[in-house]
Design a protein that fits this description.
By secondary structure, the protein is α/β, with parallel strands linked by helices. It has two domains: 294 residues, 3-Layer(aba) Sandwich (Rossmann fold); 120 residues, no CATH class. It is globular. The two termini are 28 Å apart. Bound molecules: S-adenosylmethionine (SAM). S-adenosylmethionine binds next to β4.
């Protein structure tokens, strides 16, 4: 563990800013904290969300905050559920909140660990094989008619999925909804959902999605779905009896953590382990759009942009257009902390507004949290700094100051890694306590 001051890169802006902020700083190396290690861990690998953190980071923070089975952990920005899943494995009661209905469903459904009906997986796969063969020559329209289903409401749907691929995905989904599979419907949902993304004509280059229009890849829906089910089945069988007993100990609610948390939680919070979005223009809604539509989680086409507008760091469609023109009003209470402001407002009104809205939303969250924390509250917020129009956004220091303003004490800032290669971007945990 390194203390600030012994680092040879002390001259970089990041270190200088941390030093000037006066917060205690440590560097630790716990290996890869990105989504990648989770892809080799049971349950975590049932969905791939590239901005998620690693289960190992959650285990580290659980130790750091001295969390026990008697604790109650909140993850107000739950994503694909890494915190909540890891807590459940360890028997620690936890609750997640997530604004994106797709991610809320993925994380909540990943918490059911039952091994009683695994035989049905084989029945589903066999029936799926027959059904896909039976409809091999049919058009997508006749399949939609047969299952009384509709095309996903996404714009330009056949750019996302080739008609035959979409037809087969619809067959997988509709078969999974039959009553005879209700005891494994959760797992079927997860398997089909993952396949819907993996079978789309896209490249997922973090942080964007690009269409892969003229690819010659052979997309085999049956293979994808059955492989996903095999992984789920293998993972369920690998869980210990103790872990299986923890099934459904935890859950994830659909909600907005910048609003009234008291109403949502109806209890006090002793611990937070979380990672809000970073101010890097990544849109979770945009990234999950194909599945939001394919899994029928949106009522209409406009709903996706509305969610992005309410999400922290949302950047897609109207979330960007409303920030384009004039500088938004900055609350006087937090203005002194926004170290990027003077420089960024002259370079880009849009980027300056984007960053300011981001910190206003984090501030709203902290104010909402303040109303429900217990006297011994401790929290770890994993945040990333960024650079907008060439101006450094020191998320950790700004967020730390916002927390202090609202009566929390910043215990320390722990840095885990430098990201973005030579771009000198950092990921840190801002560790806070309730000020006594
Ligand atoms: C960095 S990701 C969290 C990833 C998570 N730690 C994991 O490992 O999967 C941030 C999440 O916050 C969610 N989010 C953004 N604004 C929110 C809000 N106002 N209320 C609740 N969740 C929100 C996003 O949809 C996204 O899933």
């Amino acid at each position: 563990m390194k203390e600030l001051g012994t680092n040879s890169a002390i001259t970089s802006c990041f270190y200088r800013n941390i030093r000037e902020s006066g917060f205690r700083y440590e560097e630790v190396n716990i290996g890869d904290i990105t989504f990648k290690p989770g892809q080799n861990e049971s349950v975590h690998r049932w969905y791939r969300l590239t901005p998620s953190y690693s289960p190992g980071l959650v285990r580290y923070l659980i130790q750091e905050l001295a969390v026990t089975k008697d604790s109650f952990v909140l993850d107000p920005f739950c994503g694909r559920g890494t915190t909540i899943i890891e807590c459940q494995k360890l028997g620690i009661p936890a609750l997640g909140i997530e604004i994106n209905p797709l991610l809320q469903q993925v994380s909540d459904r990943s918490l059911l660990w039952e091994t009683g009906h695994l035989k049905l997986f084989g029945d589903y796969i066999a029936e799926l094989d027959c059904l896909l063969n039976e409809h091999q020559k049919d058009s997508i329209d006749s399949v939609l008619l047969k299952f009384n289903a509709r095309l996903p409401l996404i714009h330009n749907v056949f750019r996302w999925w080739k008609p035959d691929v979409l037809k087969n995905l619809i067959i997988c989904r509709e078969l999974s909804l039959l009553g005879k599979y209700s005891s494994i419907s959760n797992y079927l949902w997860l398997a089909v959902n993952k396949a819907a993304l993996d079978c789309a004509n896209i490249h997922r280059n973090h942080p964007t999605i690009t269409f892969d229009d003229n690819h010659q890849r052979n997309i085999d829906v049956y293979f994808e779905v059955s492989e996903n089910l095999k992984t789920i089945s293998k993972d369920l069988e690998s869980l210990s009896d103790e872990e299986i007993c923890n099934s459904r100990l935890n859950s994830v609610l659909l909600g907005n953590s910048t609003r009234n948390l008291e109403e949502l939680l109806k209890r006090s919070v002793g611990l937070v382990i979380t990672s809000p979005p970073y101010p890097n223009r990544y849109s979770y809604v945009h990234q999950t759009r194909p599945q939001l539509h394919f899994m029928d989680l949106l009522e209409n086409i406009r709903q996706a942009t509305e969610i992005d507008l309410n999400a922290i760091g949302g950047t897609w469609g109207r979330a960007t257009s409303i920030l384009q023109n004039e500088l938004i009003e900055v609350p006087a209470e937090i203005r002194p902390y926004l170290s990027y402001y003077d420089e960024l407002k002259d370079r880009s009104v849009l980027m300056c507004n984007y960053a300011t809205k981001y910190f206003i939303d984090l501030w709203r969250h902290i104010k909402a949290l303040k109303r429900c924390v217990s006297n011994d509250f401790k929290g770890a917020y994993v945040v990333g700094n960024s650079r907008l129009s060439g101006v450094e956004i020191f998320t950790e220091a700004i967020f730390g100051k916002i927390c202090e303003r609202e009566g929390f004490r910043v215990e320390k800032i722990i840095s885990f890694r430098k990201r973005g290669g030579r771009q000198r971007l950092y990921e840190t945990a801002v560790c806070i306590k309730r000020q006594k």
